[in-house]
Amino acid sequence: MDAGAGSCNACGAAGTALMKLSLGKDFFGRAYDRLSPSSDQSPKWYCEACSMQKNLQRDFRDIRAEFDKLTAGQTSELSNTDTFQRAALRLREIAAILEATSSQSPILAAPDVAQLIGRFQTTTMQA
Ligand SMILES: [Zn+2]
Fold first, then answer.
1. CA 112, 57, 121, 27: dihedral to nearest 10 degrees?
2. What is the pTM of this model?
3. Ligand 1 centroid, distance to 8 Cα (angstroms)
4. How far, in Å, is the centroid of ligand 1 from the Cα of 99?
5. Do 105 and 48 form a contact (C-beta atoms < 8 A)?
6. How far away, in angstroms, is 20 Cα from ligand 1 center?
7. How far apart are CA 120 and CA 97, in angstroms?
8. Contact 94, 113 (CB under 8 A)
9. CA of residue 12 to ligand 1 center, whole Å
10. Structure confidence at residue 124 (pLDDT)
C-alpha cells in the first residue's frame, strides 16, 4: 500500500504525508496488539494531526475503560493511587490539547473528555 496515494482515514485529508499508526504500549504499559498480523486486517493511515489525536483517543479510551471498571468495583489499573493521579493528569493534558486545536476533532470529542475529568474529580472527593 502506498501511503502517499491515500487519504487520512479519519478526516479524509489527501495530498499530505500520511503515517501508519504504530502503537506499542497502551497508557497502562500493556502490550497493544493493533499491529500484530492477526488483528491488523485493515491498516489505517492518518495525517499528522489525526495520528496525534488518535494517540489521545487511545489513551482516553484506555483510561475510561479502567475507570469504568474501578467504579464498578472491579480490579482496575486505577486502583493504584499513583496511576489514578497520572491518568487524571493525562486527561487534563488531552483536554488542553483538544482545546488548543482550532477545528473540531473527527476522532475525539472534547465534551467526552471533559465529562470523564468530571467523573474523576467526583471519585477523588469520595476517596
Ligand atoms: Zn486527518
1. 160
2. 0.73
3. 5
4. 17
5. no
6. 12
7. 18
8. yes
9. 6
10. 66
Between CA 62 and CA 80 the distance in angstroms is: 15
Between the CA of 18 and the centroid of ligand 1 the distance, in Å, is: 8
Q: Over its length of 127 residues, how does the chain's per-residue pLDDT go in tens digits? A: 444 468 888 888 888 888 776 656 778 887 665 544 444 556 678 888 888 888 899 899 999 999 999 999 999 999 999 999 999 999 999 999 999 886 777 889 999 999 999 999 988 655 5
Map out the domains of the chain as residue ranges: 3-126
Calculate the alpha carbon distances from 76 to 3, 31, 68, 88 in Å.
38, 16, 9, 14
The label of the residue with cell 489521545 reads: 56
Cα of 48 vs centre of ligand 1, distance in Å, is: 7
Nearest to 50 by CA among 112, 110, 4, 7: 7
CB 99 within 8 A of CB 110: yes
- Å from CA of 28 to ligand 1 middle: 26
In this structure, which amino acid lies at residue 40? D
Residue 36, pLDDT score: 44
